[in-house]
Design goal:
137 residues; 66% helix; globular; membrane; lipid metabolism; fatty acid metabolism; ELO_fam
């Protein structure tokens, strides 16, 4: 792939033209039997675009997260709620469990979004540690 073709591919990814014209689903077919009221991602495409447009706000998001860290640090619940989808995909094939995504508006998508926000905040936390020249351990 040459440089111009590579940039065109990246532009198509960033503008979602590859996703809009593709008829194949990248998501697993699993649907949760029970979903808590807050475990839903409305308009997942706009959430993705929002993160793409504001990627440079990592520090601001990180500071906000540090304030809310205690309420977002319950990883065990996220694992338990997401394992159901993973085990369903694993029961059909290993390929599906690794290569297929979760339904974009379902329970696992909510926890994946929470995980992504958590990683952004951890990056900001790491920046503060590095800038203060403190040891990591």
């Amino acid at each position: 792939m040459d440089m111009i073709g590579g940039m065109d591919f990246i532009n198509q990814l960033n503008n979602f033209t590859l996703y809009r014209t593709n008829n194949q689903s990248f998501h697993s077919g699993y649907r949760y039997k029970y979903r808590l009221p807050f475990e839903h991602v409305n308009d997942s495409m706009s959430k993705t675009i929002w993160f793409q447009d504001r990627w440079h706000h990592l520090i601001t998001i990180s500071i906000a997260y540090i304030v809310l860290k205690q309420s977002l640090s319950n990883i065990i619940i996220a694992f338990v709620r997401s394992a159901e989808d993973f085990l369903f995909s694993l029961s059909s094939s290993f390929y599906d469990s690794v290569c297929r995504s979760v339904q974009p508006s379902d329970v696992a998508a909510f926890w994946a979004l929470t995980f992504a926000v958590n990683k952004i905040a951890e990056f900001g936390d790491l920046l503060f540690i590095v800038l203060r020249k403190r040891p990591l351990m």
